[in-house]
Design brief:
Layout: H1 2-21, E1 31-38, E2 49-52, E3 57-62, E4 67-72, E5 78-82, E6 88-94, E7 99-104, E8 110-114, E9 120-124, E10 133-136, E11 141-147, E12 158-163, E13 170-176, E14 184-186, E15 192-197, E16 202-207, E17 213-218, E18 228-231, E19 236-242, E20 245-251, E21 257-262, E22 269-273, E23 278-282, E24 286-294, E25 297-305, E26 310-316, E27 321-326, E28 335-341
Antiparallel strand pairs: 1-28, 2-3, 3-4, 4-5, 6-7, 7-8, 8-9, 10-11, 11-12, 12-13, 14-15, 15-16, 16-17, 18-19, 19-20, 20-21, 22-23, 23-24, 24-25, 26-27, 27-28
């Protein structure tokens, strides 16, 4: 009897400790799955999202099938597939013109589509391998990664071209001696742009006006820092490394790392939820939700089930929605997961 009671007490204590240490339970989870929208017949990877808030549209680049997938933003309904885009990666929607700028890798040109007909109305000639796009709202310029491993000619370096997405005018380039450059984040109220130079395991700090690299901050927690997001008011930059998968917070005043946590396998997106002071990391099988309790204090509060091949994501703060794209393969149907973002308590 004493042995049985001791075991029972031990188990109760262990369960209580687990309850304290475990991420958020379903009842108070920060995200709630609303629906899964399948994209039948799609095999392979998607890449990045964009929105047309006024027009109630969600756009998704069908990287491996050369498509633009269009959804109803609120309901998530799949509206149509636009073919003929080769290898689309990033999308920038221009509401004033009702046009879409879509970067394209390989030898193809970055394309501009009419937002009503989805016909190609213009092309922008950049170096081959156009991929990641970061938009600087303060200057209304787009920063586009080209060259490197995505170029059909296999350039040994990458070029970040700065353009006016409306006119296509090119203001200059920033070159890096690596074939792997990824995420871009721009200050809205400052003069800096941060670029993940993944092949050098560093963050480049670039002046918006001169396009000069003013600093290179090493990321020592891992290799191939790719996803990126910025908390400008809090002076913190967030990146995720891929070898190993780690979330890293960087002080933008000093360039020093101030926190590091485990990230989901194959994390391909990092989203900062400013209103709720959370970070969402999307990777295989689950979304890691990290709470920002202070400039240097971060902790995982939940692991929200997603799908194998869940990669890119987009937060729509105007609607309190988070979208996650799921690649299609032999075991998983391609689609989009729509989550409700629940407010912090």
């Amino acid at each position: 009897m004493r042995t049985t009671c001791a075991i029972a007490l031990f188990c109760a204590a262990a369960l209580a400790a687990a309850a304290v240490c475990a991420p958020a339970l379903a009842a108070d989870a920060p995200l709630r799955l609303l629906r899964r929208i399948d994209v039948p017949g799609f095999e392979g990877d998607f890449d990045h999202f964009a929105t047309d808030i006024k027009g109630n549209r969600l756009f998704l680049a069908g990287e491996d099938k050369g498509t633009l997938e269009v959804f109803d933003l609120k309901s998530g309904t799949h509206v149509r597939t636009v073919n003929g885009l080769e290898a689309p990666h990033a999308i920038h929607y221009m509401p004033g013109k009702d046009r879409l700028l879509i970067t394209n890798s390989g030898e193809g040109l970055t394309k501009v589509l009419d937002g009503r007909t989805y016909k190609v109305v213009d092309t922008i000639r950049l170096a081959p391998g156009a991929d990641v796009l970061g938009y600087d709202a303060s200057t209304r310029r787009a920063w586009i990664v080209t060259g490197g491993k995505n170029a059909g000619t296999k350039l040994g370096h990458t070029i970040v071209s700065v353009i006016d997405p409306v006119t296509g005018a090119r203001f200059g380039d920033v070159q890096f001696d690596t074939d792997f450059t990824e995420g871009i984040a721009a200050e809205r109220n400052g003069s800096r742009v941060f670029i993940n130079v993944a092949g050098m395991n560093s963050v480049a700090v670039v002046d918006k006006t001169s396009l000069k690299v003013t600093a290179m901050w090493p990321v020592r927690e891992g290799d191939n820092n790719a996803p990126i997001a910025l908390d400008e008011a809090g002076h913190r930059l967030f990146v995720v490394t891929r070898k190993p998968f780690r979330f890293v917070a960087i002080d933008t005043l000093t360039g020093a790392s101030v926190a590091s946590l485990e990230a989901p396998p194959r994390t391909n997106e990092l989203v900062y939820d400013r209103a709720n002071r959370r970070i969402y990391l999307t990777g295989d099988d689950y979304i890691s939700v990290i709470r920002q309790d202070g400039a240097d204090k971060y902790g995982e509060i939940a692991r929200i089930k997603s799908d194998k091949g869940a990669k890119t994501a987009l937060l729509v703060p105007e609607l309190d929605l988070l979208y996650v794209a799921v690649a299609g393969n032999g075991t998983t149907t391609a689609g989009v997961l729509q989550y409700a973002v629940l407010p912090s308590r």
